[in-house]
Amino acid sequence: MSDLEKLVDELGELSVLEAAELVKLLEEKWGVSASAPVAMAAVAAPGDAAAEPEEEKTEFDVLIKDPGPKKIEVIKAIRQLTSLGLKEAKEVAETDGGKVMEGVGKEAANDAKSKLEAAGATVEVV
Length: 126
Hints:
This protein is an alpha+beta fold. It folds into 2 domains: 3-51, no CATH class; 60-125, CATH 3.30.1390.10. Helix content is 54%, strand content 14%. It has helices spanning 3-12, 16-30, 35-44, 71-81, 86-94, 106-118, and strands at residues 60-66, 98-104, 122-125. α4 packs antiparallel against α6 (106-118).
């Protein structure tokens, strides 16, 4: 085994605290910073609390980007999905980024998106 392989094996046996101490010593000796690799190593450490997965989003907004050429069909779809009157539904359809639904579940948001797209609108779920 070469000297480098022996060194790699020895470094692999270090505890996290020993590795952190080694990093400090090398930074001081060579006048460099290893902050990015150390941060990545901390995230990759198994069982580390910092590596918890992000919470999945549960509430979504349905926005109309463009009503498309069939504006009347889109207005009808908005009225079916909400309790808005004709005037309010028309305003939502004509407003760029108009919120059709707010704070709804993923299934309801996707259902609304498919109905509005079927009516000809360009829709975004955020």
